[in-house]
Amino acid sequence: MTVNTSSLCFRNKAILAPMVRVGTLPMRLLALDYGADIVYCEELIDLKMLQCKRVVNEVLETVDFVAPNERVVFRTCETEKDSVVFQMGTADAERALAVARLVENDVAGIDVNMGCPKEYSTKGGMGAALLSNPDQIEAILTTLVQAIRKPVTCKIRILPSTEETISLVKRIEKTGVAAIAVHGRKKEERPQHPVHCDVIKAISEAVSVPVIANGGSHDFIKEYSDLQAFQQATAASAVMVARAAMWNPSIFQKEGSQPLNDVVREYIKYAVRYDNHYTNTKYCLCQMLREQLENAQGKQLHAAQSLQEICEVFEMSGFYKETSALLEAKKASLETKNQVEDDQMEDADVIKMAVKFDKREYPPQITPKMCLLEWCRKEKHPQPVYETVERPLDRLFRSVVTVAKQKYRSTFWEKSKKLTEQAAAIVCLRTLGLPEGKWSEEAGHLVSKRKRPDQELLRNGEHRDELVAESALCWVKIR
To answer: What pLDDT digit, counting tens, does each position of 141-186 carry?
Structure first.
């Protein structure tokens, strides 16, 4: 049996449980501030993560995993790097490994969700659905343990009988996981059902791997001292707290919980500092305030449609304005610095112009890239080669095109690869004195396979519209 070694230890620890929509960066950082030893992120589905690109956010000083629609799926920072465990939802060993490799350098550990009973998790064979497929559990965990450097854990629920549960846990232990979190309820049971401390205790006594007890918020955990009572009742190595921490993350503070109003303000500070989406921020605040949601402040929170409005509800407008101004100033400074560095790093042989591509200036189906490609074919040059880079700061793009061993680019950064490649083509065409296909140019200047008589007709202004249309059709074929 191989066990991954790491500085992350799961014995005698207080742990923030993975909670959908709650376990985002502000809550994780706040829990750490109040004394949590380890924090789990919310369950993130493997397929969604595999669509993401890792982006270093220099303004926020975070690492972001960004979906194609520009939504930040997972955000983390240096403060939690040695304490955060990434929890994924998966039912496939190879996908699980691909996700683990994507994030492992930015987190302290990897966890597989095997206990969530909700449909969004189980419908793909993930979460609690895995409990009935021990072979797949073994395949996923073994693959992860053997292939990544960080500790691997999993979180399960108990099975219909104690014997079945212990049998499964022993099989999991053999995969080499660093710890097993056990929610002491069956998959059909809900928070109002009593947690089965006796089953967790039987598991703890049956295996040597650390067992993390979870599910005690309703029956046990009301203050910090209750964490120890729950650990003793289950004979577990550590305690994982979900709803009690969601209601007030200062539950982890040994000196006692802080007043909720103070906790709320600290949470909002992290939400603003790390640009947490207002809908997620509002959701978490609603979980904390609970019975206060019907008062005037609670109703104002429900109506808030931005982080700024949330700050106004809690009389934190000054903090919002100050923090926003600092972030904007930092962004502007980084943009200037990066622009200077880009210009300094550019090779002297790169020809640059300040140009942008506006498709409204071109006929349908005709673009600068097409004109450049046809010219290269006519002159028997290799096809233009486009190299595009993305700037992490603002996720804008800039492209360099190489034609006949010469490089060309625009000085502008664009929102898409298509726009920046067209701009690079324009720079090349203008440098070479070639037409780029604009409406404003004579149609006879369009780079096409038109015969000279057609070009003469165009110069004389005859049949201009017909030939432009034919040229467009020619371009469609070329593409």
So the answer is: 999 999 999 999 999 999 999 999 999 999 999 999 999 999 999 9
Sheet holding 396-403, edge to edge: 350-353, 406-410, 396-403, 385-391
Cβ proximity of 431 and 407 under 8 Å: no
More confident residue, 113 or 457: 113
Q: Is residue 116 annotated as a catalytic residue, yes or no?
A: yes
Beta strands 53-57 and 62-66, pairing class: antiparallel
The C-alpha atoms of residue 462 and residue 476 are separated, in whole angstroms, by 23
This prediction has a pTM of 0.76
* Residue tagged 């550019």 (tokens): 346
Kindly tell me if the per-residue pLDDT of 444 is higher than 60: no
From 41, 52, 77, 116, active-site residue: 116
* Tokens (6 digits) for 143: 């693959």
Query: Chain-centre distance of CA 197, in angstroms?
Result: 36
pLDDT at residue 479 tops 90: no
**For residue 4, pLDDT beyond 60:** no
Whether the per-residue pLDDT at 376 is higher than 60: the answer is yes
What number of helices (H) and strands (E) belong to the chain? 18, 16
Q: Find the DSSP H helices in 316-416.
A: 317-345, 368-378
Quick one: pLDDT at residue 352?
92
**The residue count for the chain:** 479
Answer yes or no: are the C-beta atoms of 95 and 50 closer than 8 Å.
Answer: yes
Q: Is 194 exposed, middle or buried (0-12, 13-18, 19+ CB in 10 A)?
A: exposed
β-sheet bridge partners, residue 409: 352, 400
Q: Over 90: is that where the pLDDT of 266 sits?
A: yes
Q: Tell me the C-alpha distance between 284 and 291, whole Å.
A: 14
Residue 96, both tokens: 């699980």
Torsional class of 410: left (φ above 0), alpha (ψ -120 to 50), beta (otherwise): beta
b/e for 402-436, b at 16 or more Cβ within 10 A? Answer: bbeeebbbbbbbbeeebbbbbbbbbbbbbeeebbb
Of 217, 190, 215, give the one whose Cα is nearest residue 200: 215
Burial of 447 (0-12, 13-18, 19+ CB in 10 A): buried
